[in-house]
TrEMBL record:
Protein name: Protein kinase domain-containing protein
Record InterPro entries: Kinase-like_dom_sf, Prot_kinase_dom
Superkingdom to which the source organism belongs: Eukaryota
SUPFAM superfamilies, A to Z: Protein kinase-like (PK-like) (SSF56112)
GO molecular function annotations of the record: ATP binding; protein kinase activity
Protein kinase domain segment(s): 224-520
Protein source organism: Xylaria grammica
Amino acid sequence: MDPFAIISAIEMCYGLGTKVIEICETWKNADVEVERRVVIVESAWDRTRRQAEFMVRVVPIMDDHLSRINDDLLRQLSTCLTLAINTLEAVTRRDSLSRPSLFGFGSRAKKASWVWKKDAIDEIVSDLEAWQRRFDPSWFLLMKIADPVIDSELARARVSETRARGLPTAAKQPFAVAAGLRHVLSPKPEQAKDVFLPDTSMEWRDIPFSSVKAGRLVGKDARWYIVDTIEVGAAARVRDIARDVGVLAVKLSRADPLAFGLLNCKGVVAVPRQGHYPQPSHRSSHPNQHDYSCFRFVFRIPEGMEVLQSLRHLLLNSDEHISLSRKVRIARELAKAVNYVHTFAFVHKNVRPESVLCFEEDYGAANQRPAGRSHAFLVGFDAFRAAAAETIMAGDMRWDRNVYRHPLRQGDDPAEKYQMQHDIYSLGVCLLEIGLWESFVEYTTEDEVPGPPQAKLGKTYDDFQAWLQENPLTTPSSRRDDDPLGFLDTVAFRLKDYLVEKARTRLAPRMGEKFARAVLSCLTCLDEGNEDFGGVGAAHAGDDGAAALCFIEGVMKSLDEISV
């Protein structure tokens, strides 16, 4: 794609954005609430402007696919800013026609004026935030380009960026977050060593239906953390696992939770097996070749979000008439998290509701604040690995796991090595659950089995078995070279067919066509006929870069275009 087309689009957006700010500036003295909103618009535009200026300087090194995505995003921004100008000018005209007169309507007209202005600015802020949400994935994907131009331009951009205390955030310091991400994409060995923490006593709290726990240091720190445990296994190579754990921890130490949907990692604790107390090889905590039973990721909980619950808990216990906007927010957050796991060059391998923590805040009518602040964070890294690393070809026959796995990854002996598209398939199953608001996995109660709840077969499994009876295969499908008649994996692929049919027949009436399209795209991401992943299906399954761009352009874009 011609780089001058993108540069021209950026220049057009720059002119439109400048005009929006000029109009808003004239309203600053209208009202305190109006002035506060103008400051928010100025801040949002300042971030967008600086990122656009950065993009102008790196356009020549972008490939055609990424250039096309950014060109489309810039056109959307141009439309957004044009509508903003029209809205602001309409309010200005309306305001001039309702100036106070001699008939005693002055205070009423003044109140109407600032209400119109507040509403107009709120609409602009909402549109700019929505655009920024669509832009961020491709913006951070730029950081993976192996070119010194990126490094020099990042250094140049960061000079003008205001530094704040604490961890940088994408909303306030996008270049600091981008530089941090780029810095850890290929971490040095000493970086991985520094993330290991000493093994200390902790107080634990279970999170119902979750693969992680909450924990805090006994007698030292009142702050709670999310702790994600990676079991080593008797025959595992401790050094290899420790290396991979350290690399992932380094990368997640740069995660901005609200931007990435991934919790920020404080460090990792290596827990020795009972009877083994190895001497540390680095500082006081880095694991050496001695035996360890597990590694514990320690994640910081974002401020104000102490009440976190698993998505499974929500699915099992909340009202089936949950709002459309709430479901869409959770879906967007989860898709974003999967995207950034892949941006960090890892595959998750365990995307399911037990691995998702949700924070939901609903404001009451008393304080007149907008309803709903929702965030979903992907955890459950117990099966992760680097995207380019070898995978363990092992599985199980558990329904609660296989229902989220691609057919070629189901069973005791998966047929295919794990790849990024398998995470995308798992995401599709989760999105289907969210859209229908039905839990595909059920759990035992104390009346059934004493002790903690255990996953069990339930309604969805029974429905699937009934569907198999109603839709028999007359000819076995041929799916694998070592199974020409298709007998070995027929049930696994039939489960996929069943889920696809549910998405096609039941989702659109509940969630709309765009949501249904996103789910179907995920579930069929390895099918040759998939339009969003066309050319990146089974024939090109190893092209992670192309798959990431297709995911952003297809799935994430469809979810972001939903208006609720």
